[in-house]
Every structure is written in structure tokens, then in C-alpha cells.
Amino acid sequence: MNNGGAMDFYDLVSTRCSIRSFEKSRAIPEEVLNRVLNAGRLAPSANNLQPWHFHVVTSPEMLEKIYPCYKRDWIQSAPSILIVSGDRNNAWVRRQDNYNSIETDLTIVMDHLILAAAWEGLGTCWIAAFDLEMIREALQLEPNIEVFAFTPLGYPAPDALPAPKKRKSLEEITTLY
User: Fold this and answer.
1) Cα–Cα distance between 119 and 116 in angstroms, integer?
2) What pLDDT, in 10s, does the model give residues 6-35?
């Protein structure tokens, strides 16, 4: 959370956690949402093609179409859902093996959005286990548009206590040459 500049980047990444309970009636101020979205806009992408689009779902009608795509009830406490989509046809493709960077680009932008949200005191939870066709239909996405993840977005409820992070040690995941 942004404490007037008191938190540095390393505090942010070590304290950010997945939130699964939100203050549904507390709206996100437009200036806060715009700062979060702008952090995503500034994310790097392969060949700077920026093949993404941000879908901010806040209307009750659209939320009712999106909530069922994820089978856990807690999602319905989220006042907003942020869905990141990308156009596979506008992403960079490596010539040697035809690797398409869309998933990498969308992952990077999603990370920027989630970290910016945490900085602003908002809760998020990266979700990839969802009914893709339900989202595609709700957002009326074209066949070339990909959705790899979305996140609920809102202020954490007072009872949203994060579990301690369990991470491998640096020695387990690092090789120095």
C-alpha cells in the first residue's frame, strides 16, 4: 500500500498477496483506477507492439455475466473485475520457430497492473482457472483475441487476512556461473 512514499519496491513485492474478500460497496476512485491502468499501459512488450486491451467491469449487469466464469463464490465480493485481453495477430512473432509473444506480453502487463493495484492499497488475485468461452461471450471478443488471466479489483475486506507466503529459498532456484 502507498504510505506516502514510505514503502519501497521490495516491501511491495514481499507484502503483496492474493485477496479473496473485498469491500463490495467501496468504489475505486477514478484517479486511483487510472494510475493502475496507466502502470499497465507502460509495461514492456515484445517489439513494443502493446497488443493488449484492458476491460474494467464494474456495472452490476456485466459483473453478473463475468462472476459465473469462476466457480468460487468469493469472487462475487469483488466490486470490479479487470480482464486483460490481447490480439494474437498484433503480437510479435519470432521468425525461427513462430513463437508468438502474446502470452508473455499479457503476463507482463498483468504483473504491472497487480503491483500498481497493491501500491494503491487495492486487492487482487490472479485468476487463470476460468471459463474462457463465458468471458469471450460476455465481452463479445473476436476469435483472435486472447484472455489468459483476470483479477478481481477492489479494497480488501477487513477479514481479508493473507496467508504467509511460502516460497523456495533463493539457493534452491538460483545457479551462479
Assistant:
1) 5
2) 578 999 998 899 999 999 999 999 999 999
59 confidence band (pLDDT: 50, 70, 90): very high
Would 11 be classed as within a structural domain? Answer: no
The model's pLDDT over 143-153, given as tens digits with 9 standing for 90+, comes to 999 998 999 99
Q: If you write DSSP's letter for every residue of 41-71 in order, what string do you get?
A: HT---GGG---EEEEEE-SHHHHHHHGGGS-
Range of the domain at 128: 18-159
Residue 95 lies in a domain: yes
Query: Nearest 10 degrees: CA dihedral of 164, 109, 128, 130?
Result: 130
> What is the rounded distance in angstroms from the CA atom of residue 66 to the CA atom of residue 10?
33
- Give the pLDDT mean for 76-83: 97
Question: How confident is the model at residue 163, as a pLDDT?
Answer: 72
Domain count of the fold of the chain: 1
> In CATH, what number is assigned to the domain containing residue 108?
3.40.109.10
